[in-house]
Amino acid sequence: MKRKLPTRSDVAAAARRIKGHVETTPVFRSAALDEIAGANLLIKAECLQQTGSFKLRGATNRLLQIPKKQRAAGVVAFSSGNHAQGVARAAKRLGMPALIVMPTDAPSVKTDGVKSDGADVYLYDRNSENREEIAAEIARKRGAALVPSFDDPMIIAGQGTVGLEFAAQAKALDTSLDHLICCTGGGGLISGICLGLNGTSADTKVWTAEPEGHDDWKRSLESGQIQTNAPGTRSICDAILTPEPGALTWALGQQYLAGGCVVSDEHAFEAMRLAFRQLRLVVEPGGAVALAAALFRLPDAARGKTAGVVLPGGNVDSRLFAKVLSREV
Length: 329
Known about the structure:
Elements lengths: L7 H11 L8 E2 L2 H7 L2 E6 L9 H9 L11 E4 L3 H12 L4 E6 L4 H9 L3 E5 L6 H12 L2 E3 L5 H7 L1 H12 L6 E5 L4 H10 L7 E7 L4 H8 L23 H10 E7 L1 H15 L9 H8 L9 E6 L6 H8 L4
Parallel strand pairs: 2-10, 3-4, 3-6, 4-5, 7-8, 7-10, 8-9
Antiparallel strand pairs: 1-2
Helix pairs in contact: 1-7, 3-4, 3-7, 4-5, 7-9, 8-9, 9-11, 12-13
């Protein structure tokens, strides 16, 4: 059965629904970063969101729409960490039990965050096991609601509130977003942002940002059909390592996206250092990819223009972050 795509009105409804449950995250400017990029950057710090990432938006929107009589059975989700923490926090607030299927190599800061909100964790091997199948079976046995990490209309709509919020903040600064660059894994955030911008900042050109070896969105946009990453391809950017675009997110992205940017892990590390040095922000590797793209792989069309950059997450292991700052990696 074909699922209905979310719309801009769904994003607007999500913004009303989750108000009071999430933070309005700030937008930063830096003359030093503008000079490196060759553009005027507006940097939205979703890394300062509760739970340390934008994922709380979609999780909250999704869980609030579960009928109260069904909430006792709880929820099951699968995630490398940020969606896991968003679901765990939203479930805790609504008094719902939660179990999250997470990879064995997920950073401890993320698994610890999930457990601290009272959720159970089921660990799987991302190279040999299928997290969707595991989560679906657990949800079936429990009679729980399955909460996908990105390819779900309510999740996409919730994440899209970032776009609505960002456009309003740019307007308040007496400017507009000519371009926007966003870290992209499954595509829930970037496709939602496209919907949020449609009608508010419809002329904004939106670009994906991905790590080398996981450039499925860029390749998909260039070929016109979904491309898959090679199995076992690794990157330090764990938060955005997905096999391919989702069905719903691709249907939206194909309509709205301008193209894609690809950066190396070394670019991500340098963006983390610059975010800390210039903005005093802690950003995880996957969350630094859009900033890395703006600084080192900016599309030619964006040069000299105003470009929005979304920093979606800041849940980085403290030992890794120390090594990044000291250039040990």
